[in-house]
Amino acid sequence: MQLLIDILSWGFILAGVFFVFTGTLGMLRLPDFYTRLHGAGITDTLGTELLLIAMMLQAGWSLVTVKLAMISLFIFFTSPTATHALANAANAVGLRPFGVPAKDLEPGKREKR
Fold this sequence. Notes:
Layout: H1 2-29, H2 33-59, H3 63-92
Helix pairs in contact: 1-2, 2-3
């Protein structure tokens, strides 16, 4: 049984590391703030959740598992909310997405690049 738990937790660890690494590459390769934020926000949340599931499997049924589950819930709700707040703030100050002409912006928005 312990071997099965170890195999499952390693699978979750590898998947979590893959998604976090993919988000890191997205931060480096994507063209503008909004696409970088989108790529990093999604992969960060998923990668962290997978890593926390792996830790819960290794902890077994204990108080540590409950604490990891609470951390998981906190990240599940706060990470997308923070990503949305950052995108909304960038939009509010007039940061233009890559490739969007100035004429397509809402009237009254300041243009920044």
